[in-house]
Design a protein that fits this description.
Largest sheet: 3 strands, antiparallel
Structural class: alpha+beta
Mean pLDDT: 82
Number of helices: 5
Distance between the termini: 51 Å
Shape: extended
Length: about 230
């Protein structure tokens, strides 16, 4: 045992006297190690890896919604013409989505100037809300999305969905009670650069609107996806 220990100590001393830099080949540089910050935050659970995959806060209430995330998308320069667009919304408005449905469909497919002009003649609360959201989307398009002329926009999408519902109690005669529903709704709008189409609703007619072809295109788009491993 003592002999083995002496040989081990002598081997360690000889290794310590060696110049390790001489062992590195001269035609290759010595590799330097550095500590890199992690690319992903594992402490926060998100739906995706980029801002356009995650919910974005809405101005005013700062509530998280997926509709403003479309403004964060960046497309590859593949030669396909894509007009500039902006997505804007207003959440939890004290109005029902059923009443808003008529106004949202009314302005869809019109230019911005024509839509605002028509909404001025509609004596409804929903018309006032839609006009405000469209004007806010105009400012957003000019300031943040490089749209040159604010009048060169048209309403590509306009719809409303159900928001939160608060319930209350209403008193009736003979000590009876009933429930009151205070309904709210979300209003969404997407403005697109350019002139509106001649017939907006012709898009949903045959043979342009073909469910089989649309499903095939959807499958092709998903098959083109690839998972990045970097």
């Amino acid at each position: 045992d003592s002999l083995l220990q002496e040989r081990a100590m002598s081997l360690l001393k000889s290794l310590a006297r060696l110049n390790l830099s001489s062992l590195v080949p001269r035609h290759t540089a010595a590799r330097t190690f550095s500590v890199q910050a992690p690319l992903f935050n594992h402490n926060e659970v998100t739906a995706g890896l980029n801002p356009w995959d995650e919910k974005q806060p809405v101005a005013g209430t700062q509530a998280l919604h997926r509709w403003p995330a479309y403004n964060e998308r960046v497309y590859a320069p593949d030669g396909v013409y894509r007009p500039a667009y902006v997505c804007h919304m207003r959440d939890n408005v004290k109005y029902t989505y059923k009443k808003m449905w008529h106004i949202a469909n009314f302005i869809r497919g019109q230019s911005v100037e024509e839509a605002l002009k028509q909404l001025d003649f509609v004596n409804k609360k929903g018309a006032f809300i839609a006009a405000e959201v469209i004007r806010e989307a105009q400012e957003l398009a000019v300031k943040e999305h490089n749209v040159e002329f604010r009048s060169n926009l048209w309403v590509a999408e306009s719809f409303a969905t159900k928001g939160m519902v608060m319930k209350g109690i209403r008193r009736h005669a003979r000590q009876r009670m009933s429930m009151v529903r205070y309904e709210y709704m979300h209003y969404y709008v997407r403005l697109e650069e350019g002139s509106p189409p001649k017939d907006y609703w012709a898009t949903w007619a045959e043979p342009e609107f073909n469910p089989t072809r649309m499903l095939e295109d959807w499958v092709k788009d998903h098959r083109k996806k690839s998972i990045p491993f970097e």
